[in-house]
Amino acid sequence: MARTRKIPLRMCVGCRERKDKRALTRIVRTPEGEVIVDPTGKKAGRGAYICPNQDCLEKVLKSKGLEKALEVSIDQTIVEQLREQLAKISVKEN
């Protein structure tokens, strides 16, 4: 008898939709306080998941949902880095 594996679901902090964990991009606040994109989904720290598109990123930045989820203030340089990294990820998927 074959076992069906449970697919982990996570909620996007931008659009608030529950999706497969692998379909979302993890943004993590490391123990050192640095905010980075975690393509592996395994780095240590507090994480938040977001759809890999610019619409969800802009929505979460406007509502400060990412700052609330990661419990840290995010400055403009980190926002630009997140935009660049998410753009790279969305290009890879297409």
Descriptive terms for the model:
94 residues; Hypothetical Cytosolic Protein, Chain: A; three-stranded antiparallel beta sheet; two-stranded antiparallel sheet; globular
Architecture overview:
With 94 residues, the protein is of the alpha+beta class. The protein has a single domain (9-93), classed as Hypothetical Cytosolic Protein, Chain: A (2-Layer Sandwich), CATH 3.30.1230. It contains three helices and five strands, in the order βββββααα. The mean pLDDT is 88.
Query: Portion of residues in helices?
Result: 25-40%
Mean pLDDT: 88
Corresponding CATH superfamily: YlxR-like
Straight-line N-to-C gap: 37 Å
Q: What global shape is seen?
A: globular
Largest sheet: 3 strands, antiparallel
Element-by-element helix/strand order: EEEEEHHH
What is the CATH class?
Alpha Beta
CATH fold-level assignment:
Hypothetical Cytosolic Protein, Chain: A
Radius of gyration: 14 Å
Short description:
The protein has 94 residues and is α+β, with helices and mostly antiparallel strands. The chain has three helices and five strands; from the N terminus they run E-E-E-E-E-H-H-H.
Layout of helices and strands:
Blueprint: E1 9-11, E2 18-20, E3 25-29, E4 35-38, E5 46-50, H1 54-63, H2 65-70, H3 76-93
Antiparallel strand pairs: 1-2, 3-4, 3-5
